[in-house]
Amino acid sequence: MNHSNSYLSNIFSFPNGKTKALTFSYDDGVKQDRQLVNLLNKYGLKATFHLNSGKLGQPNNVAIGEVASLYRGHEVSVHTVHHPHLNELSPAEIRTEIALDKQALERLVSYPVRGMSFPFGFYNETIVNYLPEIGIQYARTVENTNTFALPQQLPLWHPTCHHNQLYADQILDNFLSNREQASLLYIWGHSFEFDGHPEWHWHQFEKFCQDLTQQDDIWFATNIEIVDYLTTLKNLRFSPDKKTVYNPSAISVWLKQGDTRLKIKAGDVVQI
Q1: Based on the domain organization, do 113 and 243 belong to the same domain?
Q2: What is the DSSP pairing of strand 269-271 with strand 260-264?
Q3: How far apart are CA 227 and CA 113, in angstroms?
Q4: Which CATH number fits the domain that encloses residue 164?
Q5: Residue 210 scores a pLDDT above 80
Q6: What is the largest CA-CA distance in the chain?
Q7: pLDDT tens-place string over residues 122-158
Q8: Domain count, the chain
Q9: Bridge partners, residue 246, by sequence
Q10: Do 262 and 179 share a structural domain?
């Protein structure tokens, strides 16, 4: 959400009036995703999984036939067909890698795939400008911000941090103690990195998930749920005196009014 709209930024709330949001983003569709999804489901957390359709079914990746059931309740997103270095491809080859991956994944999950992460973090103007043409609404980079700011440019969505930074850099502690409005913690990585990692092996990640569920002010969402919510907020229509608001979108949003939170249902006109 563009913070040039200072009024909206000041009255912003996440769903149910929560002050924080957390989203995960994991790449490659590797077999360790099975264990990761089980943990996330156990604690009611959500993630986005960026898959290479051309690698599904290989020994170290999940099977084609399990994609829909494994990632149900989460989000499946583009990561190109073969995970190439996009900077080594022609514009036509780049478009093919992205578009065919999107089409293949949509056949598997039976819903529009609207997000992407860049293989190896590489992007350029040609790639970014192409994404809206095929309905890609956001794309994640690997350029960590180490902040909890909302995305300024969804086609170049910079995450907060890689998951192995959370404790080393006290990012998690800072997030949980942060009292600023609309704080977003965006964590990315690869599930195979939990195998034997000195800081982030599986039992440590489970403890992290368990600790998160003790917090009552965090909205756990997929990448696209964050995008849809921010888009709905941006599309709110206010009267000139800011005393009336109309929500023309299909989902409800929450606004802050003093110490209270006001729900603006889809299609509602509300006096504030």
Answers
A1: no
A2: unpaired
A3: 13
A4: 3.20.20.370
A5: yes
A6: 61
A7: 999 999 999 999 999 999 999 999 999 999 899 999 9
A8: 2
A9: 237, 269
A10: no
